[in-house]
Write a structure and sequence with these properties.
Helices cover 32% and strands 24% of the residues. By secondary structure, the chain is an alpha/beta fold. Strand 4 (66-75) and strand 5 form a beta hairpin. Helix 4 crosses helix 5, helix 5 (129-142) crosses helix 6 (159-171) and helix 6 (159-171) runs parallel beside helix 7 (189-206). It is globular, with a radius of gyration of 21 Å.
């Protein structure tokens, strides 16, 4: 991806939390980029640093305990970490919006959904209350909710409808980047499919770039163009959807796929990744995954592997992904098509 095509670029981001029990290293030297009109999936276990990363982009982490130790976050060529809070308030909602994880707690229970959508519209579009009310109704219709429900309160909506309202709020000012933090976690499978289809349609309609945080590789296959596999605060593998699903190189990525039931196989046994995610306040030396890795060697325990580009745009942080090792330690995963 050329520099001109990058809407968002994160360089060497390091975020720690200072606690009474010590320093929690939530994100360590993380590098990512998102192009205009693209969808990037962030995949990893709970505690990997996904939400910390996107909240740092939005500049909504509480300070203290969070400390941004290092890094740059460029949005359209400007470093967000150098912006004042006043400048960030003008960016949040208008240029970058976020859909939070739980729709049940994302809405204010004492305000109507119309008032909550109107708030962002009035702040960024500088229109009067009557016009903002009309636009709020338009947004509800855009996400499949009747306009006459604009004066209803959140408790009068189901979980799926609340998530549609949250999406309407996020897209009210037509942002260039939409961040979705596990937007379908609290929803049943049928409603999940409807919400994902809605997000795909609105993304095409508004030509919005998107960062999708999820545990579900099925969602990644459905909606993402590029995928970043995150482990212990680092991107261990990055590539297109095809790179990750058909030509994965990192053993952690391989482990994630072996945890998924295979409808094309007679073997009903799942193979979980052994062990647990390391404590972010006491990360191991060398490769952070070596304590759980079946391919580890002595070098893995002492040295941190560099990010190696194994093909155009496909990078992996693993010593066995180095060109001279690929032939002897093949990491690819054969997935049914």
């Amino acid at each position: 991806m050329s520099q001109q095509d990058k809407l968002l670029e994160i360089k060497n981001l390091t975020v720690h939390y200072s606690t009474v029990d010590g320093t929690v290293r939530a994100v360590e030297n993380l590098n990512l980029s998102v192009g205009a009109g693209q969808t990037l999936g962030l995949v990893g276990e709970t505690g990997a640093g996904k939400t910390t990363t996107v909240k740092t982009i939005m500049r909504i982490l509480p300070v203290p305990p969070s400390i941004i130790k290092n890094g740059e976050i460029f949005f359209k060529g400007e470093d967000l970490l150098k912006k004042t809070q006043k400048e960030m308030r003008s960016i949040r909602g208008e240029k970058i919006s976020m859909i939070f994880q739980d729709p049940m707690t994302s809405l204010n229970p004492v305000l109507t959904v119309g008032e909550q959508i109107m708030e962002a519209i009035q702040l960024h579009r500088k229109v009067n209350k009557h016009k903002a009310f009309e636009l709020a109704g338009d947004m509800l219709e855009t996400v499949g909710i009747k306009r006459d429900r604009v004066n209803d309160y959140p408790h009068q909506f189901s979980g799926g409808m609340k998530q549609r309202v949250v999406i309407a709020m996020a897209l009210a000012c037509n942002p260039q980047l939409l961040i979705a933090d596990e937007p379908t976690t609290a929803l049943d499978v049928t409603i999940q499919a409807q919400v994902l289809e809605l997000m795909k349609r609105l993304k095409r309609q508004y030509n919005t770039s998107m960062i999708m945080i999820t545990h579900d590789l099925g969602i990644v296959a459905e909606i993402c163009d590029y995928v970043a596999i995150i482990y212990a605060g680092q991107v261990v593998e990055y590539g297109t959807r095809e790179d990750i699903f058909l030509h994965a190189r990192h053993p952690y990525t391989k482990g994630l796929f072996t945890c998924i039931p295979d409808l094309y196989s007679d073997n009903n046994e799942l193979i979980p990744i052994r062990g647990l995610m390391p404590d972010p306040s006491n990360l191991p030396s060398g490769c952070k995954f070596h304590t759980r890795c079946d391919y580890k060697c002595e070098k893995c325990e002492k040295e941190e592997p560099p990010a190696v580009e194994v093909s155009s745009g496909h990078s992996v942080k693993c010593f066995f992904a180095l060109p001279q090792n690929v032939a002897s330690k093949e990491m690819s995963i054969e997935m049914p098509v």
